[in-house]
Amino acid sequence: MKGLTLRLCHLYPELMNIYGDRGNVIALERRCAWRGIRVEVSRLTLGDPLDPGDFDLFFIGGGQDREQMLVCEDISAEKGAALRQAVEEGAALLSICGGYQLLGRSFLTWTGELLPGIGLFDVETVGGDTRFIGNVAVRCTLEGAEGTLVGFENHSGRTRLGPGCRPLGQVIFGHGNNGEDGTEGCVYRNAIGTYLHGSLLPKNPRLADWLILRALRRRHDLEGLPPLDDSLEEAAHRAALSLIRRDSGLLWRAIRGSGR
Amino acid sequence: MPGAAAAADPYNRPMRTRLVAAVAAGKAATALSRRLGLGAGSNFPGRVVLRLYPRALEDMASRLERGCVLVTGTNGKTTTSNLLASMLREAGLRPVHNRVGANLITGITAALAQSSDLRGEPRGDIGLFEVDEATLPAAVRRLRPRMVIVTNLFRDQLDRYGELETLAGKMDGALRELEPGSVVLLNADDPLVASLGKDSPASIRYYGIESAEAAEGVLRHAADSKHCRVCGAPLAFTAHFFGHMGKYSCSRCGTARPFPHFSATRVELRGTEGTSVTVSTPSWRASLSLPIPGLYNVHNLLAALGGALLLGLGREEVERGVRGYVTAFGRGERIPLEGRDIFLVLSKNPTGFNEVIRTVRGEGKDLVVLAALNDRIADGRDVSWIWDVDFEELAPLPRVLVAFDTARRMKYAGMDTARIEVRGDLREALRAALAHAREGETVFALTTYTATLELRRILTRMGAAPGLWEGGSS
After folding, report:
1. How far is B390 from chain A (nearest CA, A)?
2. With CB atoms 3.0 to 4.6 Å apart as the test, which of A64, A176, A256, B129 could cross-link to A184 if both were Cys?
């Protein structure tokens, strides 16, 4: 893998970082470094210009309400069009929670404000009066990254997918996109939107490698990535799954108990 | 019938009877809770009291001759109230104080019941209560405090509290309900805390660090409040202490850090040994030797000192209080065990952890570190915040790191996995860390809240540490 370079763009790192979303960038950097792939991380924020040809992989995390408003204004200007173009040209992208919402068509807040999205994903989000908080397990249906995903969700937005994109997976436990249709996240070309914090990628190394491979393929002809020793990561993944099973067991018992 | 007599009884004896019964039941419940090992954070005794007599808290609090002081904020509540309690005792007062971790309404109720005699009269004259940030509105309404101290607001356990802005709004609402004549003491270095209380009838005082050498060059990514609460523009910092603590002003609307009434004008950090601080108040200056490490504890000292002076204490009482201070449980305790020292520091959020790492960094390399995280509910269930901690700075320090639940984070922090040992059990982890340490060496134990409690229990069982209830943490 020597001689390969991955150009990673971390969008609004100081504004959109909640629940350890930064761990995703750490995971991408390390997993490349362990394979001898050079990573150049650029951190772009409010007012910085974005050239769609400059990057192979984009990351945007979640944020608090005030931060999300500031970013919404900035990203709806030039950056949004550049991001859409980059994804059309094959760049990989991961967006979490608030970042995912901003990349959709629109976000109608609980208080009735309509925030425009950049329309990269064919999804619409409506704010709810309650928050979905807790551990999540998802059966990921993404080609090349099939298996379970584990994470932690905390959002009041209900996101619904249009025909222009497909879900990242089906919810096994937790709420996912909207708590109703059983879907979680969305995928369009090599771009992923999801509600999973956690941090997501250190606990789900397969998805990290999926993104790295797609990003590298933008400029390199590549079959696959050499495997890494993921025993610690897999142990964390299993631990999260068993925690979720325990929770769902408790839930099941509570339901049965109250039914008596 | 006792019910029929109630209206005519000028001494309201049935109310008193209910209080007496509730206090007695609370004491029994506390004894039971300790016997069952439910721990200091148990809600059960307080619930029993309030079930028997819903107004027990208001009733007991109103019997405190000198009223109540509330200490709230994300970090530093325990250390601040312990320091303040130590100063109050030097002034001959008898503070009633809730124990570590019992900072919800039920915990305060239990503490008051426990320190009352069987007639329901408190065996103290001033209430000094740590209050969970989200509990502040209820605590203000029920306790009618004469003073509220706010230490800082960090992103901590967001899944329980909601986001910081919302929390600050709720706290503002609580401060609005204070009575005129009461005092709010705020940390000037925390932009969000300093913005509180603008429409409170209470008088507002500030404390902060004025020493330039305490500042760090860069604002860390774990910083939480980087925007002006008034207008939303980014804040400009001329000094960073840690997290989002610093000297700041808003370039757009001119909102600036208030000038502190109580300040540290010189700070010399001496690693895990402690800190030398020169403090300045409106009427005097003094050099104090603080036996606990880290810049964050300088803030705690200033909060306690400001509180003490605003309660009318003098310089001697403050100085004696600092000298007589006994380290709070898990806040930088050194515990000797088998010819080694265990240095026990509790961290429960990114900024807390970063500060602990900064303190440990002063101890050089080749360290034996025990790192334990767990995600029980008292830690805030979501542990994703470990990715906001600068473990990258810790990675080069340990000769060996024994990890309980922290291994993966350390691997991604760039630590050689050959130097990481994973243990699934905290007792085993402690054993392994002790085995790695040489005679006379220190094991640095960095733990989250419930892991600290568990470690402390293990140490007590090994005979190394006094039991939680006998410890100097009252």
Report:
1. 11
2. A176
